[in-house]
Specification:
A hairpin with a 2-residue loop joins strand 3 and strand 4. The N terminus is likely disordered. The longest helix is centred in the N-terminal third of the chain and has 19 residues. The protein has 198 residues and is an alpha+beta fold. It has one domain. Strands 1, 2, 5, 6, 7, 8, 9 and 10 form an eight-stranded mixed sheet that branches. The protein contains seven helices and ten strands.
């Protein structure tokens, strides 16, 4: 009976990976000296991510399950000192949690930031050398033109050609996940974009 339970669990994990296209948790790996930031606001953002990437702050912000990546990213921006607006916000009342589209949608966040040059500057993969800790990274896994996943840059290792960006996200839960590993899990069709935050 126990071997059947183990086999069923293994099947469920494998099926989840095949359906979602990625592992469910990516814990930090020792990769050398990790540069964070000297900016207190960015450090608060990264510390929030480290505390909540596996333990979502559900009491305050809810949890959208397998599509919680932008909700999590938005929370880190609040920890950084950003203020909610009418267009980018989350609230709760007796009927439940309420979110604006840019708070919970990768494509919605892209569209919101595209209209807010005072908040962020769009960068593409060729400009990744300009990316800083705390910046937002977005993935288009299938090169369809929309954005499928959002994370933040939680650290940087190395410099020049050996510079590695480390990611923090929820769904999948990750802290200091090397960006190349995230790309490798989804294949060569993946397109990567960044928002360099002001």
């Amino acid at each position: 009976m126990r071997s059947r339970s183990v086999a069923l669990l293994a099947f469920a994990v494998t099926a989840t990976l095949l359906i979602s296209g990625c592992s469910s948790v990516h814990d930090a790996k020792p990769v050398g000296h990790v540069y964070r930031s000297s900016n207190a606001a960015v450090l608060a953002q990264i510390n929030y991510a480290k505390v909540h990437y596996k333990k979502p702050n559900t009491a305050e912000f809810g949890d959208l399950g397998g599509t919680d990546c932008v909700n999590f990213t938005s929370q880190t921006l609040i920890a950084r000192g950003w203020m909610m607006t009418t267009d980018w916000a989350q609230s709760s009342d007796s009927s439940g949690m309420h979110y604006t589209r840019p708070w919970i949608s990768s494509t919605g966040l892209r569209d919101y930031l595209a209209g807010k040059p005072q908040l962020a500057t769009a960068l593409d993969w060729s400009q990744r050398g300009q990316v800083s800790v705390g910046d937002i990274v977005q993935f288009d896994w299938d090169a369809s033109g929309d954005r499928d996943h959002t994370a933040i840059v939680s650290g940087i290792v190395g410099s020049g050609a050996r510079r590695v960006l480390l990611l923090s996200s929820h769904s999948p839960a990750a802290f200091d996940w090397p960006i190349e590993e995230a790309i490798a899990e989804h294949g060569l069709a993946t397109k990567v974009y960044f928002w360099h935050l002001k």
